[in-house]
Amino acid sequence: MKKAQHSESQAARVGFVSLGCPKNLVDSERILTQLRAEGYEISATYAAADLVVINTCG
């Protein structure tokens, strides 16, 4: 994964939704950890996000 850059001084913001089975929550935590490690900021609201990830079970 490339490091996320929204602008020179601000990381891209990601909103995250986890739907489905309990195993999906574990997967979501792993994805969020990787996104943070790659320089993304996790947004508390979807309106403030540059991108929204929806993780579904199945």
Shape: flat
> Percentage of helical residues?
25-40%
Mean pLDDT: 87
Largest sheet: 3 strands, parallel
Spans of at least 5 consecutive residues whose pLDDT stays below 50 are none
Query: Distance N terminus to C terminus?
Result: 24 Å
Number of domains: 1
Rg over alpha carbons: 12 Å
What's the SSE pattern?
EHEE
With strands numbered from the N-terminus, the spatial order across the biggest sheet is 2-1-3
Topology, number of strands: 3
β-strand percent reads 15-25%
**Global structural class:** alpha/beta
User: How many helical stretches?
Assistant: 1
Describe the structure.
The chain is α/β, with parallel strands linked by helices and 58 residues long. It has one domain. 28% of the residues lie in helices and 22% in strands. The chain is built from 1 helix and 3 strands, in the order E-H-E-E. A 3-stranded parallel β-sheet has the order 2-1-3, with helices on one face. The protein starts with 12 loop residues before the first strand and ends with a strand.
Brief overview:
With about 60 residues, the chain is α/β, with parallel strands linked by helices. About 30% of the residues lie in helices and about 20% in strands.
